[in-house]
């Protein structure tokens, strides 16, 4: 049957609903057996029963994707090789923030200075993987699995969740496009969504009559035995338990209008919703600065550092009554070379700096077993602190979890940047 474009079709509303539901992908990603991923709207949920409860500690892991240059963020001005290696892009000591005899912070990190001065922000330098790995994706996988030599696909944050007796998809949450990072991937249930609004049942909107979509799904799945029925019921429970987050204030206008700003605003809103989320992950991209890293006057480093600092400062200020629960750790898959290249950039390196902020942090200083920079053929910052030692100190002090469970086969070295 055909119809004239000028004559409205009687089923136009129905077609609009169908197109809207199709765009949201009602059937994209069906549930399989336990451990598979369920897609509900744009939210991803791994199958397990939901049990919302207030979290006593919250860990936010911010990954600087692309290998951030820790020597630019936390500058070793007291090492003379730093200025020899970077005659054009080095930052003069008198421009650095909170400078001590060896280190100082990049000037664009100024929004974080109140946290530093209050002892709520620390840096740990010369950190990284136990052996060099200059492949972005291989290094990311190794950092996030944190279990060298294992063939088990389970990340360290998933193991941390598993150390808790509670089992809920709300314990772990990735802010992103639906694919959880390796650190959260594994047997334990987690969620992933790009925004608070994405955590919904696809099609449960203005077209649904008297919660018809929800009622239909419950009718279909509530009595179904086995993993498939359990998966669907856990999904419904997680969505119901998430409702307080949607009621929490959206303070995103206080953040930079950037991907990181939007993501951290979502993280803060989830934390303030207090529905039992314990670990959250978020990314900031574009740190792969082989060229145009630049100087204090121009370049990618000043832009990214400014976005990082303003976004994190806004996030810490936005936590409200949940502030005393939240610890933030900032890391990257590896560092960059000591010596600048011809294009005002830096190639892939080894050692790096990590930042830790918030609850339990003994801040206002740089923790480092400094190896000294060199101008030899490799010209890399050597790793003297395995990154897992940094994470293990947070895990043990804030969650009371066994580091042997979260980081199998690894014995962490005490660093002292967290209260016990």
Automatic annotation (TrEMBL):
Domain of life (superkingdom): Bacteria
PROSITE patterns the record matches: TAT
Pfam families, alphabetized: DUF1501
Protein name (database record): Uncharacterized conserved protein, DUF1501 family
């Amino acid at each position: 049957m055909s119809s004239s474009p000028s004559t409205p079709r009687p089923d136009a509303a129905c077609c609009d609903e169908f197109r809207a539901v199709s765009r949201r992908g009602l059937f994209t990603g069906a549930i399989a057996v336990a451990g598979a991923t369920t897609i509900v709207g744009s939210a991803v949920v791994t199958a397990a029963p939901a049990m919302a409860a207030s979290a006593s500690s919250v860990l936010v892991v911010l990954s600087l994707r692309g290998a951030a240059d820790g020597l630019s963020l936390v500058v070793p001005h007291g090492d003379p090789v730093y200025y020899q290696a970077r005659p054009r892009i080095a930052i003069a000591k008198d421009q650095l923030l909170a400078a001590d005899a060896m280190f100082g912070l990049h000037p664009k990190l100024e929004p974080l200075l109140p946290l530093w001065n209050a002892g709520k922000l620390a840096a740990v330098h010369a950190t990284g993987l136990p052996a060099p790995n200059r492949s972005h994706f291989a290094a990311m996988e190794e950092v996030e699995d944190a279990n060298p030599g294992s063939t088990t696909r389970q990340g360290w944050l998933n193991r941390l969740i598993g150390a808790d007796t509670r089992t809920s998809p709300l314990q772990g949450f990735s802010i992103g496009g639906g694919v959880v990072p390796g650190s959260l991937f594994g047997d334990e249930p987690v969620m992933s969504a790009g925004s608070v609004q994405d955590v919904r049942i696809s099609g449960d909107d203005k077209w649904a009559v008297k919660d018809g979509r929800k009622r239909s799904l419950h009718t279909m799945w509530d009595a179904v035995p086995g993993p498939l029925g359990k998966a669907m019921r856990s999904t419904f429970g997680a969505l119901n338990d998430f409702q307080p987050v949607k009621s929490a204030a959206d303070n995103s206008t206080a953040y930079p209008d950037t991907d990181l700003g939007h993501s951290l605003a979502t993280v803060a809103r989830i934390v303030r919703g207090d529905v039992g989320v314990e670990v959250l992950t978020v990314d900031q991209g574009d740190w792969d600065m082989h060229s145009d890293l630049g100087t204090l006057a121009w370049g990618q480093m000043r832009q990214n550092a400014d976005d990082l600092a303003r976004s994190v400062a806004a996030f810490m200020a936005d936590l409200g009554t949940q502030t005393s629960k939240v610890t933030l750790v900032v890391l990257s898959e590896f560092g960059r070379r000591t010596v600048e290249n011809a294009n005002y950039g830096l190639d892939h390196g080894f050692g790096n700096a990590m930042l830790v902020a918030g609850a339990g942090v003994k801040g206002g200083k740089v923790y480092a077993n400094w190896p000294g920079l060199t101008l030899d053929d490799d010209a890399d910052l050597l790793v003297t602190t395995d990154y897992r030692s940094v994470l293990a100190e947070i895990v043990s002090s804030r969650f009371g979890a066994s580091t042997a469970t979260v980081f199998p086969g690894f014995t962490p070295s005490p660093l002292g940047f967290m209260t016990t």
